[in-house]
Amino acid sequence: MTKPLFEMRQVEVSYNGEPVVFDMNLKLDKGEVLGIVGESGSGKSTLAKAAMGLLGSEGSVTKGSIIFKGNTLLDMSKESLRRLRGPHMGMIFQNCESALCPLRTIGDQLFEALQEHGQRNRKDAREQALVMFKKMNLHDGNRILKSYPFELSGGMNQRVGIAMAMMFKPELLIADEPTSALDVISQAKVVEEITSLREEYGISMVIITHNIGLVSKIADKIAVMHQGRLVEYGDAGAVINNPKEDYTQKLIQSVPRIRKG
Ligand SMILES: Nc1ncnc2c1ncn2[C@@H]1O[C@H](COP(=O)(O)OP(=O)(O)OP(=O)(O)O)[C@@H](O)[C@H]1O
């Protein structure tokens, strides 16, 4: 039996010693898409940050283990984790604009991120960026590279953030509410763009959202969180069409007409 690409075993996460996520058990095989859904405050972002080693000084994993390709992340040094982030495990944030530095151009930030992971040639980096921008429907790539984040629209910054994460073609991409800062039409387009890039590069993904409708279209498995706990977890079709928990039914009822075929 092949080992999962990513796994959480009995994970508890706390802020300042106070647990907010309890007994999380999840598995993701290579090429799979896992949707994590739940209402605001259920612990979804905390889980994503724990997986990426980005909990900050107040937060820590207080029980269990998080395993990526057979390596226990909690045992890794900060430097090894830093090297893993980007080329192996990528992250897309809810608001990519706030993750970008306001004082430097997109091009400088992009090159710096690639340089940190061994890409030294600025011309190659630029070409790679232009290709990825096009795939994200950002057609004026040269202008974007010269722009500061405040010179772009919210939707453009979000696409730039996604393109930057995708440029590394990571084995695992964790997307935390990747479309919630966008209007409904842009949301649908960005989901399509992410899905086609994922298919093209065979990237495994964890998509975190409060909108079960969004993951119903693209996830293979769905995990439902409520008050820091996993309340339902299984194949997306089974969770959507035959939810066992009342809470999942309520989430589904809050979205008009979704069905997984
Ligand atoms: N830095 C922090 N310090 C203390 N408590 C925190 C911190 N960040 C989050 N929490 C708490 O952890 C719990 C889970 O929050 P989290 O942001 O993970 O939920 P979420 O499901 O991602 O919500 P949302 O959909 O609104 O982003 C909440 O009770 C929140 O108040």
Produce a short descriptive summary.
With 261 residues, this protein is α/β, with parallel strands linked by helices.
Question: What does the model show?
Answer:
The chain is built from eleven helices and ten strands. Helix content is 40%, strand content 25%. It starts with 5 loop residues before the first strand and ends in an 8-residue tail after the last helix. It has a six-stranded mixed sheet, sandwiched between helices. It has a four-stranded antiparallel sheet with strand order 2-1-4-5, covered by helices on one side. The protein has two domains: 1-88 and 170-255, 3-Layer(aba) Sandwich (Rossmann fold), CATH 3.40.50.300; 96-167, no CATH class. It has helices at residues 44-52, 78-84, 96-99, 106-116, 122-135, 141-146, 154-167, 184-201, 212-218, 236-241, 246-253; strands at residues 6-15, 18-28, 33-37, 59-68, 71-72, 89-92, 172-176, 204-209, 221-226, 229-235. Helix 5 (122-135) crosses helix 7 (154-167) and helix 7 (154-167) runs parallel beside helix 8 (184-201). The mean pLDDT is 89. It has 261 residues and is α/β, with parallel strands linked by helices.
Which keywords apply here?
10 strands, 4-stranded antiparallel sheet, single chain, binds adenosine-5'-triphosphate, 261 residues, 2 domains, alpha/beta, 6-stranded mixed sheet
